[in-house]
Specification:
Elements (H helix, E strand, L loop, with lengths): L1 H33 L8 H13 L3 H13 L7 H13 L3 H12 L6 H14 L3 H11 L4 H13 L3 H13 L7 H13 L6 H30 L33
Helix pairs in contact: 1-2, 2-3, 3-4, 4-5, 5-6, 5-7, 6-7, 7-8, 8-9, 9-10, 10-11
Length: 262
C-alpha cells in the first residue's frame, strides 16, 4: 500500500511538473504572438494561448489575462473575470496582480469595497510594490494618517508623483508627524517637476515661510535627491505607459515586454 501511494505521489508530481512546463511554454508562445508587427504577429491567437496558460495555473499568464479582460484587449471587457484572474495570480505571489486587484476594489470596478481593496493593496505594499503602497495610503489616510505616511513615503521614493505630493502635505499638516517645511518644500518641488500642478501653490507659500536662504537650501537638496526618486530610475523597466503617474494610476501594459513577468 505504501509503495502504491508513493508511486501515485510521484506520478502526480510528474504530471504537475509537465503541466507547469506546458503552461510556461504556452505563455511564451502567447507573448510571441502578441509582439512584433510581422506575419507572426497574431493578437487573437496570442490571447487564446494566454488564456490556456492561465487555465493551467501559470501566474504571469493569469495576471496578463486579467489585464486583457479588464482593458478589453481583443475580448469584451469583463471586470469580474479580470478580478478573478488577478486574484489567482496574486495568490501565487504576484504583487502587480495584487495591486491591480486592490485597485479594482478601491475604485469600485468590482463590488467588495474598501476592506477588500486595502487587503490586496497591503499584500502588494508588503511585497515592495509602490502602487500598492500608494493606494493603501490613499485609502487609509483620513482615518489613520500615522500609518499612511510611511506608505506615502515608500511610494514617493519609488517615483510616484502623487505619493510625493501627499507625503509633502503630511510634512506641513502636523497631523501625525512633526512639521518640516524644508522637507515639505523638497517633496512638493519633486512632485511639481513630475507634473503635479497641485504642488505649485504650496511651493509659493513655503518660499515665504522659508525665506531666501531656506528656499535656496531646499532647492539644493531637491536637486540632489530628485534623480534618485525619479520613476524612470525605480521602475525596473516597466514605465512610461499612459496614466502611470495619474492620481489613480492605470494598469501597466502587462502584454508589453518591459512589464512581463515570468
Amino acid at each position: 500500500m505504501r509503495k502504491y501511494l508513493i508511486a501515485l505521489f510521484l506520478l502526480a508530481s510528474t504530471l504537475v511538473s509537465a503541466q507547469s512546463k506546458d503552461a510556461k511554454a504556452l505563455y511564451g508562445k502567447a507573448m510571441n504572438s502578441l509582439s512584433g508587427a510581422g506575419p507572426s504577429h497574431d493578437p487573437i491567437a496570442g490571447v487564446d494561448l494566454l488564456k490556456q496558460s492561465a487555465q493551467l495555473g501559470y501566474g504571469p499568464a493569469q495576471a496578463a489575462y486579467g489585464y486583457v479582460l479588464e482593458t478589453g484587449f481583443q475580448v469584451p471587457v469583463s471586470l469580474a473575470d479580470a478580478a478573478d484572474w488577478y486574484r489567482k495570480a496574486a495568490e501565487q505571489g504576484d504583487d502587480t496582480a495584487a495591486w491591480l486587484l486592490g485597485r479594482m476594489y478601491l475604485i469600485g470596478e468590482v463590488p467588495g469595497g474598501g476592506q477588500a481593496g486595502e487587503k490586496w493593496s497591503r499584500i502588494a505594499a508588503d511585497a515592495g510594490n509602490p502602487f500598492g503602497a500608494y493606494l493603501l495610503a490613499l485609502s487609509i489616510n483620513d482615518r489613520d494618517p500615522k500609518a499612511a505616511i510611511p506608505l506615502f513615503k515608500a511610494a514617493a521614493n519609488k517615483g510616484l508623483p502623487y505619493a510625493q505630493l501627499y507625503y509633502a502635505q503630511s510634512l506641513i499638516s502636523g497631523r501625525a508627524i512633526n512639521v518640516d517645511k524644508s522637507q515639505a518644500y523638497v517633496w512638493f518641488m519633486i512632485a511639481f517637476d513630475a507634473g503635479v500642478p497641485e504642488a505649485q501653490a504650496p511651493l509659493q507659500l513655503l518660499e515665504g515661510d522659508l525665506g531666501s536662504t531656506g528656499t535656496e537650501r531646499a532647492k539644493t537638496e531637491t536637486r540632489e535627491l530628485e534623480p534618485k526618486v525619479l520613476r524612470s530610475n525605480n521602475a525596473r523597466g516597466c514605465t512610461g505607459w499612459s496614466g502611470e503617474l495619474d492620481k489613480i494610476p492605470s494598469p501597466p501594459p502587462l502584454l508589453d515586454a518591459t512589464c512581463r513577468t515570468n
